[in-house]
Write a structure and sequence with these properties.
The protein has five helices and four strands, in the order αβαββαβαα. The chain is mainly α. The radius of gyration is 21 Å and the shape is elongated.
Amino acid sequence: MADDDESDEPAVVLGEKTPVEGVPLARISARLMWGIEQSEIKKREGETHVRTPDGPRALGDILAETDKTYFSTRQEFETAIRKVIGQGPVPTAEADNTETSETQAEAGEAENEDEA
């Protein structure tokens, strides 16, 4: 039978929802059939904005920076795109991190007071 002690609370608290602009690269590549020409990808998904470490960018602009004209596999496509956009954390829509920094500083001060 099912676990009787399951609660309505989530097992992991995820925090507040912070919007992220653009779509994940994996979502775009999942919508396509492989092998496919670069021109066909531009036609279908060129206006779609992809999440990048530098903020959202149109896939058509990213494809213009690759030297590939045909992608035989999803992995080949994603590797070529990641060479252009790089890898790293994606910025959230809210660029103001001053509140977070102030909160962290206050928490550090409180810990120092507890140790004294």
